[in-house]
Design brief:
The complex is a heterodimer. Chain A is about 30% helix and about 15% strand. Chain A is α+β, with helices and mostly antiparallel strands. In chain A, helix 2 (about 105-115) runs parallel beside helix 6, helix 6 (about 170-180) packs antiparallel against helix 7 (about 190-195) and helix 6 packs across helix 9. Chain B starts with a helix and ends with a helix. The chains are: A alpha+beta, B mainly alpha. Bound molecules: iron/sulfur cluster and FE2/S2 (inorganic) cluster.
């Protein structure tokens, strides 16, 4: 076990640098440390000006996503021991504008999430007195996997299509749309299908599949996109039917 | 106009399924099993009789044409993304699908002409 490990960390202080640069830090190596621990060590002991996001330290909040040796990772789940002997490169998430050091601008992602209307929509709400909307375990199972997303944006950083075409609505947003489409309480699948069928929607996806590979929560956004494409394709053929609506 | 994307994607998906499921069967049979003698190869007359049957002709046509559209779709996006040719969007799409159409026409003609 080495006594220490070197981290090469992106620094970008817009008031001081015009371009992001890499700065190296030597941190003690500990078997149970993750990259986030090393960053906190740097912040506490070496350089208090280093900026990065984190909160839960347990893969729940989704805020600590960064590129570790070029792959999108939750830094609270990336053990230093998996990257020996180092140096370990820690950079902000790919394809997002950098605000400062390891902090990226999430505005675009937030807009995209909202765009797919990720909430339960009903044509008619039933009165409160009628009680809750019940769901069987099977109905829950239908969408549960897609509801595990923690909005960490790793899938966007892994998606070459998003890298080339920033307007692409992207993996997590589409998986989230499918999460509500498959919810037995929801009635807006049609509405969301139209949104996702727009130019920058699901058809942009070329099924690279990297999103599902990097997802720390096994959400399988690539699977959600394929499911939705199938729905969209079946929908397209409806005009051939005499009772088709379009 | 209705966007044609979902339709093209259906061809792509169907062609991919055929290429993944049926091609290996044909490749193993006629590329390995028959020539290596693992299975007894059908005689010319048997095969000829088979190929002349309308159902087989239709089968051959489907097995040949749909993967062509699978190729067209893949190749199109490869050109866009890998070669960064997005600005030639229309031209590339027309060329790719025309090639698939042409290939399909040749296949249809050939299958049809089997005496
Ligand atoms: S789908 Fe997975 S990788 Fe993408 S934002 Fe959600 S949890 Fe993160
Ligand atoms: S700190 Fe919350 S997911 Fe890593």
């Amino acid at each position: 076990m080495p006594p220490s490990v070197t981290l090469a960390v992106t620094r970008y202080r817009p008031e001081q640098e015009s371009e992001p640069t890499l700065q190296t830090y030597e941190v003690p190596f500990r078997k149970d440390w993750v990259v986030l621990d090393a960053l906190n060590y740097i912040k506490d002991n070496l350089d208090g000006s280093l900026s990065f996001r984190w909160s839960c330290r347990m893969g729940v909040c989704g805020s600590c996503g960064m590129m570790v040796n070029g792959s999108p990772k939750l830094t609270c789940a990336a053990f230093l021991s998996d990257y020996l002997p180092g140096p370990i490169r820690v950079e902000p998430l790919n394809y997002f504008p950098i605000i400062r050091d390891l902090v990226v601008d999430m505005t675009d992602f937030m807009h995209k999430l909202k765009k797919v209307k990720p909430w339960i929509i009903r044509a008619q709400e039933k009165p409160l007195a009628d009680g809750e909307y019940l769901q069987t375990p099977d109905q829950l199972e239908m969408y549960k996997q897609f509801s595990m997303c923690i909005n960490c944006m790793l899938c966007y950083s892994a998606c070459p299509v998003y890298g080339l075409e920033q307007s692409f609505i992207g993996p997590a947003a589409i998986a989230l749309a499918q999460r509500y489409n498959l919810d037995s309480r929801d009635e807006a699948a049609r509405e969301r299908l139209e949104i996702l069928s727009e130019h920058d929607g699901m058809w942009q996806c070329t099924f690279v599949g990297e999103c599902s590979k990097v997802c720390p929560k096994n959400v399988d956004p690539a699977g959600a996109i394929q499911q939705l494409k199938l729905v969209g394709a079946v929908d397209w053929f409806r005009f051939l039917l005499p009772w088709g609506t379009r | 106009m209705r966007p044609i994307t979902p339709f093209l994607w259906t061809l792509f998906g169907a062609g991919g399924t055929i290429a993944a499921l049926l091609f290996p069967v044909h490749l193993v049979l006629s590329g390995l099993a028959f020539p290596l003698g693992a299975l007894e190869a059908p005689s010319y007359d048997v095969l000829y009789g088979l190929v002349r049957h309308p159902v087989t002709r239709l089968y051959l046509l489907v097995v040949i044409t749909l993967p062509l559209f699978h190729w067209a779709h893949r190749f199109r996006y490869t050109l866009y993304d890998v070669l960064q040719l997005k600005h030639l969007y229309r031209l590339i799409a027309v060329l790719c699908y025309s090639a698939a159409l042409l290939g399909s026409a040749v296949a249809a003609y050939t299958v049809w002409r089997i005496p």
